[in-house]
Amino acid sequence: MTTKQTSQLSSLKKSVAPYEKTDRKASVRQLINTLGPLVLLWAAAYFSLSVSYWLTLLFAIPAAGFVIRTFIIFHDCCHGSFFKSRKANDIIGTITGVLTLVPYRQWKHSHSIHHAGSSNLEKRGIGDIWIMTVEEYEAAKPLKRLYYRIYRNPLVMFVAGPIVVFLIQYRFNAKGARRKERMNTYLTNILIAALYSGLILAIGWQAFLLVQLPIVFVSGFLGIWLFYVQHQFEDSYFEHEDEWSYVSAAVEGSSYYKLPRLLQWITGNIGFHHVHHLSPKVPNYNLELAHNATPPLQKATTITIGSSLKALHFRLWDEENRRFVGFKEIKARLRQPKPAVEALKVRKPGLQGE
How far is residue 45's CA from residue 347's CA, in Å, rounded to a whole number? Predict the structure, then answer.
């Protein structure tokens, strides 16, 4: 990092520092206005089964929104920004992890890696969505290209993704996980099994599935979408290690997802993702305040629900033109014969998908 970059980081960090302080009353209030409605909506969805399943879905969809809001609390706990006490963050993080089907310590570890190397081309692969550059895709073997195309297909990512990630992937520890992380994953799985078993005994497995499955799917879909779109917009930022800047990665590589007020509240202000990446210690209820008080942060790329839909067509990062492109845009290039010297090129080690 250059002296100028260090100065920029110091200046911006100083600007948002006042908003890094947690407010215990605000945190407790958020727990109440999040978990309370979640429980009430879940109960309403169950009791409405005797009336109409359409009414059940009418309750299940907003319940999924409150699962997203619960995940934001979980997310803040992972960063140690929801409470001052580490123990309180660990306890609330584990409990909200059970409700959102995400093991606290496992996700905390992978997410910290994501923050440390976001937009760094040499540090892709942990805690993020698989992204290949145009050059890597051109050099890849046909089978790897096919696998990548399947992975990036919206139906796979946003329909199968919530099931694979939240119901299967998070039930297992990563290779080499430390003991605390492994134990927390086991504890989370046991608590989920106990909670779900209790509900099934109380209301029956059919009623449980009719209520819980749409909530899990919709919340999972929305969660993956939010994570996807806030780092994958057309003129994003990616650099190799020697040119990478933490400040640029935060302000240029993370979007400001401008949502309607109600959706902004439900999603715990996570649309101010550029602020969060600059300073993960800012609790979610202070993100908008930090954004409004810091003019340089207001220059971050702003996307709306309408403009964010373009991200569905983004597949590869074009290093030469510094933007995301779709598969169709590089089809002509792939048909051209590769020069012998290009065929002998060796890619840099450590990139995602190796």
Answer: 52
